Amino acid sequence: MGIMEKMNLSKHISGQFNAELEDIRNRVLAMGGLVERQLEQALDALTTLDAELAQKVIEGDHRVNGMEVSIDEECTRIIAKRQPAASDLRMIIAISKTIADLERIGDACVRIAKAALEKRVNTQQPLLVSIESMGRHATRMLHSTLDALARMDAEQALELHKEDAKLDKEYEGIIRQLMTYMMEDPRSIPGVLDVLWAARAVERVGDRCKNICEYVIYYVKGKDVRHTSYEDMEKDL
Amino acid sequence: MGIMEKMNLSKHISGQFNAELEDIRNRVLAMGGLVERQLEQALDALTTLDAELAQKVIEGDHRVNGMEVSIDEECTRIIAKRQPAASDLRMIIAISKTIADLERIGDACVRIAKAALEKRVNTQQPLLVSIESMGRHATRMLHSTLDALARMDAEQALELHKEDAKLDKEYEGIIRQLMTYMMEDPRSIPGVLDVLWAARAVERVGDRCKNICEYVIYYVKGKDVRHTSYEDMEKDL
């Protein structure tokens, strides 16, 4: 094979490889979009106590799971076939970690939807207003996280990383409110606990977003920032 | 380079590669051992309300985190340098997923230890007996999971996968017990909620063990069994 032929072949291979990376990125973003809709619908179902919508969310989770498994398979296939290094490898690792967190956000949606199906939640309507506001916050955070992921924007990822602390504060407020509720009316306890599990699931969505932001930073900066304080992360970037 | 020299070089490289794989396996098992001790001590701290031991567990978590980051780095380095395929690649993927779950079991230990520091838990001693029994169950499950991982034993992993359902049942029993407690004595609610968070953390340890068992099966059988029913898994193996 002449040198020109070799160069063409290697260009061809790298073109295919880029197309594969592009394809896998698109699939992760599609998975993110699906999870985002699941979260919106789960919160809608809970705040309007819409059993039909809740059922739809629960049944939709297998699609999220299926996407995780198939994207993960594709990541392994690409590593074995293309033997990527440096930033290509970091991209695939970031993707394979991201889908695990997206899948767990999917599980959180199921938990929220299940709370909507509990008959005893009905009596706790005023509490649902707080959850709704916290839920909207978490949905915005997920949307921006997917945005940072689509553009591989490390600065935005760092901003979002900070945002999670606000969601945690909101969650603590809700827990205090739920506690007061239960103490004032012990008969409400089982229903309030259902709301409490839903609030916890929403809070976990924020943690998962924070993880995904860390993978974006890892991809862009080539640095693992997990277990690092915000101040140290800012210094590094 | 003659053919004998090439063969020697390739033997040498594969010998180094095997040593690297062996080293990384040992490090995961060491991390598992550390997490196991953290869990035992966190449960001890909670059931005896030992603040000093609880503090020790909380401070020890950074070692678990550090092991996760360094093993993960080593996994990426090996993939980039050795370009492993087939079962070697599966081993590295299984390891990199396992350490993420071990790290989260570490977080669960911190949550249990923090409950031990809450002064208001003191009044809930009888409840702690139930948590102790559930905690012992979870500790055994973690120990056996690490055992299955050390021996890469897919059959044992499958058995353990079933075991988690029993832990879930125990957890549900504790939640019902906690609910009755709170309804009978509303002043106990804040303290009971602390115990409830600890119980939830113990229940999550079982879920993480189940995940690790799935990675062992993935390594041995080359099949991703996540989101698969127990019956289908048994058929496959």
Automatic annotation (TrEMBL), chains A, B:
Pfam entry (one): PhoU
Gene designation per UniProt: phoU
Assigned protein family: Belongs to the PhoU family.
Function, as annotated: Plays a role in the regulation of phosphate uptake.
Residue ranges of every copy of the PhoU domain listed in the record: 29-115, 131-216
InterPro entries: PhoU, PhoU-like_sf, PhoU_dom
Organism ancestry: Bacteria, Pseudomonadati, Pseudomonadota, Gammaproteobacteria, Alteromonadales
Cellular location(s): Cytoplasm
Subunit organization: Homodimer.
Source taxon at top rank: Bacteria
SUPFAM superfamilies named in the record: PhoU-like
Protein name (Swiss-Prot/TrEMBL): Phosphate-specific transport system accessory protein PhoU
Protein keywords: Cytoplasm, Phosphate transport, Transport
Organism: Shewanella ulleungensis
Keyword Transmembrane helix annotated: no
